[in-house]
Amino acid sequence: MKKKAPAAKPKNKSPRVRAKATSVKKSAGKKSAKSILSELLAGRPTTDLKYILYEASVQCPEWHVRHFPRYLLWMTGKKAMSLREDFCGTSRISAEWVKSDKNRTALGMDLDPEPLDYYERIHRPTLLPSQAERLRLVQKNVLIPTHEKFDLIAACNFSFYIFHEREVLLSYFRAAHRSLEPKGALFLEMAGGEGMLEGMEEERMVRIPKIGKIKYVWEQNDFDAISSVNDYAIHFQMPNKKWLENAFQYHWRIWGIREVREILKEAGFSKTHVFWETADSTGKGTGEYAPMENGDPSHAWIAYVAGVK
Ligand SMILES: C[S@@+](CC[C@H](N)C(=O)[O-])C[C@H]1O[C@@H](n2cnc3c(N)ncnc32)[C@H](O)[C@@H]1O
Questions:
Q1: Which atom of ligand 1 is nearest to the CA of 157?
Q2: Cα 105 to averaged position of ligand 1 atoms, centre (Å)
Q3: What does the angle CA 149 – CA 153 – CA 158 come to, to the nearest 5 degrees?
Q4: Whose CA is nearest to atom 13 of ligand 1?
């Protein structure tokens, strides 16, 4: 089976290549974790550390801001000006969105006040006032529609996999549909393939300014073939070799593209498109995505499914 290389796009956020099994052990370091933390966080909540590490090793918000509007333009001819970022966490996509055009607006929605607070303290002050005033965050369940309507709703990093039941996913899609402008679209970032289902650990080194080289570890358990639910976790190892274990944990149902398209249709979306990674002549992923109706059997893939209102 052809194995796809990691895409250039979002920073290898998902398991694509089976890494050598590594045991996540704590080991002694030269500098204590406490001293690194106190230098870095100086007066900040210790929970900030996991967001610093996550953003540096997982996210690439510029990619979404560059590509989703292009896909929407191609699908419906609509220019994307307003964004709702669902499951927004620290709202990095929204922050890039308002920077990308002086007329663009964004609303981030998340249930958890902790990452929303991180945005307010850490990211908001880095925006110009004219940018910050066009970005609002609400602590809100994405299952509830917003009165305000958007050109584009983005659900990134497989976040909707948190919904395990078909009925719940359907109600999310209905709520998103109601919250879209005509010719607007819901974009779902999805991952799948065998590589997403097997018990494994993948690790890579990431250099982070002011922190140094950290190890990012993506861990997945064996997939439950009956429930289609699996447990995943992100661990980090600091430059002093101390571990931040289970910084993030996910209990996800692994949805398939076909069933998701069917549910989008049931929720009222007039059309769906799948943006699948293109391959070069050797079968290697290019990091570019194009609308396709057939996908090659990649070991692990990331794809974008869009539902058009
Ligand atoms: C995997 S994180 C995604 C963070 C960020 N969007 C990204 O792309 O990396 C999932 C986020 O979804 C939030 N969340 C989970 N269920 C939610 C719901 N029903 N409504 C709103 N947010 C939810 C969690 O609090 C968490 O911050």
A1: 8
A2: 20
A3: 150
A4: 87
Please list, in sequence order, all residues whose beta carbon lies within 8 angstroms of the beta carbon of residue 168, skipping any fewer than 6 positions away: 143
User: Does the residue 275 lie in any domain?
Assistant: yes
- Residue 28 included in any domain: no
Q: Is 159 a pocket residue for ligand 1 (Cβ < 6 Å)?
A: yes
Q: What are residue 82's DSSP bridge partners?
A: 105
Domain count, the chain: 1
Residue with CA at minimum distance from ligand 1 atom 12: 87
Q: What CATH number is given to the structural domain containing 302? A: 3.40.50.150
* Domain-located, residue 240: no
Show the domain range for 270.
61-192+256-308
Gyration radius of the chain's alpha carbons:
19
The reply to whether ligand 1 has any atom less than 6 angstroms from the CB of 59 is: yes
Q: Does residue 181 lie within any of the structural domains?
A: yes
Q: What are phi and psi of 295, to 5 degrees?
A: -120, 145
Q: What is the pTM of this model?
A: 0.89
Question: CA-to-CA distance for 50 and 34, rounded, in angstroms?
Answer: 15
CA dist., res. 56 & res. 236, Å (int): 11
Q: Check if 141 has its Cβ closer than 6 Å to any atom of ligand 1.
A: yes
pLDDT digits (tens, 9 = 90+) for 126-182: 999 999 999 999 999 999 999 999 999 999 999 999 999 999 999 999 999 999 999
- Token pair of 113 as six digits: 């006040």
Instruction: Find the angle CA(252)-CA(253)-CA(259) to the nearest 5 degrees.
Output: 145
Nearest CA, atom 27, ligand 1: 89
